[in-house]
Amino acid sequence: MSPVSRRGLLSGGIAAGAALSIPAATATASTASASTAAATAGGVSSAKIRPTDARYQDLVQRGTNRRFVAQPDYVRVIRSADDAVQAVQEAVRTNKRIAVRGGGHCFEDFVDHSEVEVLLDMSQYDEVSFDERYNAFSIGAGATLETVYKALFYGWGVTVPGGGCLGVGVGGHFSGGGYGPLSRKYGSVVDHLYGVEVVVVDAKGRARSVVATMDNQYKDLWWAHTGGGGGNFGVIVRYLMRTAGARGTDPSRLLPKAPASLLSSILIYDWKTITSDGFVRTLRNWFDFFERNNTADSPYATLYSPFILTTAAAGSFLLSTQLDASVPNAAGLLKAFNAAMLEGVSPAPQVIDVPEGPFLHLTMQRSIAEDIAPKRSKFKAGYLRKGYTDAQLKLLYDNLSDPKSVAAPGSSVLFIPYGGKVNTVPPAATATVQRDVMAKMVLTATWDDPGQDEVQIGWARKLYEDLYAATGGVPVPNETNAGSYINYPDVDLADPRYNKSGVPWSELYYQGNYARLQRVKATWDPRNVFRHKLSIEPAG
């Protein structure tokens, strides 16, 4: 096997671990016994980083939402499966609440919570390699999407259909049903998940590492990680990635081929000149296009075109589009798409054609940027089976264009195309149940001043409540809505003050798959060691 990762290249191989550690790329079911024995024998390899340690503040402030900063008793930086087993075992033995951090992008306080006493930081366990034993790519749970994309593409010319924010960690992103620019062509990330290694705790409080795959005796645990979300069943150590149905042993044929190059364009709309009718027509064009072109075999399957609706304070909003340049008549397709977006819109937006460029270079260049200084934020989301009504779009226009709006300048509403290949998988085949959708909506409030918390969160809540007024203030599954996405968690959905629909939060996120997730939870985390405000509740 040939490890290829940013950290691996710098160190000349697999990241250093404990003396008893088994390299991630060769761990098997027998790892569980070795790890459990090591934990029982005592002696945890990773140091307890306490508040007096110079590293502590850096580690506890790695989260990107400054509304939440934990103050755990100590932090452990995990570097191997054994390391994780031993750290979990000690925390369970001393009855301390555990949280796990990967990339630090959890939108709520699931990691940075006041009750968390032990924080396990996975950021240094980021190896990407090919595991010959499982005939799959092994990806450490601490890896970021940037690390994964570079390792897979430079090493084997392949990729996974993950997200566009490169600093996001795979630990939560993959397990929650991650998606991104290539998902309409290749499906969700979980449609390429062959297995997962997880540190679990049994009813007697014994920690062990289990490798669960789609075809071994632990299949139920694998299934739970195909959309169940992080922080529910154990500590995810690594993922084993291989496209469902892929055959052979050549690694370059076991995951999707990355495009060689991309065609791109940007449409910029001026808030000063666009009217309510023009705004409605603009969004209607977008919704209509993706409703018409939402099949896996569509020539537009590789077209990714998120609409980024910032407030009027930003001056403009934009539509950023990319398309695989190798698709037949790619230039013609992009031209036709832009023409469809401009139809009936006056005044027309500014159109910027971006020169064709290499796939990974443009992916890095056009990725969703992160502020160097993290902000305070609140996120709310929903899946769409079809586009919003004109009344909903007018509501958005009135809110976003209002010069007296209390929304902070960085706040926005984002519409992201989805569906295509995603919709070819049965809802129960993975824990990712939404398999008949065409887009996602993400509402973001972001600000700096803690004194603005109530105002900014209130703005997001009011707009969301008004958008979904017909269904109790939340996206209750119906002809138009399909609930919400667990990787965009919103604790308001579990609060009757904001969810007035009578439909429980679990139905909004998991629908018919929740009962099975509860059974998996009861089997693999019977003591409810791993929990947060929207964690799976064990079956009674």
- Mass-distribution shape: globular
Please provide the ordered H/E string of secondary-structure elements: HHHEHEEEEHHHEEHEEHEEHEHEHEEHHH
Using the CA coordinates, give the radius of gyration.
Answer: 23 Å
- Biggest β-sheet: count, sense, barrel? 7 strands, antiparallel
Strand order of the largest sheet: 12-9-11-10-14-15-13
Features:
540 residues; alpha+beta; seven-stranded antiparallel sheet; five-stranded antiparallel sheet; 15 helices; 27% helix
Q: Would you mind describing this structure in some detail?
A:
By secondary structure, the chain is an alpha+beta fold. Helix content is 27%, strand content 19%. A hairpin with a 5-residue loop joins β10 (307-310) and β11 (316-324).
Structure summarized in a few sentences:
This protein has 540 residues and is α+β, with helices and mostly antiparallel strands.
